[in-house]
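Recall from the previous lesson that a structure prediction takes nothing but the amino acid sequence as input. Here we apply that procedure to AI-2E family transporter from Agromyces seonyuensis. The sequence below is the only information supplied.
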Amino acid sequence: VFSRALFRSPVPAAVVPASVAAPPAPPAADRGAALPYGGRVLLTLAGAIVVFVGIWFARGILAPAAIAAVVVIIAAPVRGPLERRGWPRWLATTAVITVSWLILAFLAALLLIAVSQFASMLPSYFPQFTAALGDLLVWIESLGIAAPSLNEIVGYLDPATIATFASDIVGGVAGLAAAAFFIFAYAIFMAADASRFAHRSSPFETPRAAAIGRRYFTGVRRYYVVNATFGAIVAVLDGIVLAIVGIPVPVVWAILAFVTNFIPNIGFVIGLIPPVVFAFLVGGWPLALVVTAVYCVINVVLQVLVQPKFVSDAVGLGLTLTFFSVVFWTLVIGPVGSILSIPLTLLLRAVLLEPDPQARAMRRLWGDPEADEPHSGSVSARAAVESASSAGSADDAPRPDRDGG
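The prediction returns the following tokens.
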């Protein structure tokens, strides 16, 4: 077609007979339908793979940015009451940055306390660990399963190996320090940009988009606040029980229980294994079973029966999708992906599915609370308009600059 059009003599439009005139161009929907459904699915999957591979290569930059974004979302409500009381915009932004830094400093302090206490305690329990490991290897060999000898395993703990491990830890601490610097810097810039965007209307913002964004930010904020509250309760109860029964460094395991509460589905198992192992080293199987029973009772009552009533409306993801998101985001951006899996999955749903009224089946699969409503788009638009009209001078409405910045 291109060669014929290129080498054919042009015919004036005025003398072209009506019988040979070019047919009208098909509608855009017909042109898009030329590609089969399977081809569109494969093309979409190929593009998604390319995007996620790029995220994996840039995970060292994107993971700190994601952490900072979540922290700024949590601290953002500080701005509204201050500005309504007449505070200048730059001072309200400074308050958001301060709260964000306090949250990050608190998490860093918990991590340092746990690592330091665990490192100081571990050498004193090395003989018990070696003896328990020897008994485990004997039991494995009695089952007819080939197992490495105890000397081979202990050989990995010679001074040279320990020195190498220590150097790796130093390198890891340096990497954590660099990541912490980026997180704190991202928090400053994101808080400043959030203030600027909140006071300027965007030509691309629609009532539907405003409702989706507002619901996403509210859901992420509620998810982390509820998890932090129940995680603190679980950590305190676990720490008290572990201290009573004589488990070493109960503060470490309490901090671990608090952190793993942010990992859906499998966080309880991750937080349970280390204290059970040390309970076995201290008091054998009876104490290990006691610790397991206490953890199960506390976590089942709080995390399974009570906590979902506060956070289910904010998340709305099924168990299968939640577990898959933990595994997927851990592979994409590293261990921090297990903690950020829920907000990242909700972000994909908000950006890719919720704006599309034809993706109702997929939105229902992803737990969109409006997917079952007959007019979800109009509902969101009406909610956004009513919220914007009633807010007046609230946070989301554009305001003139009071400080000139």
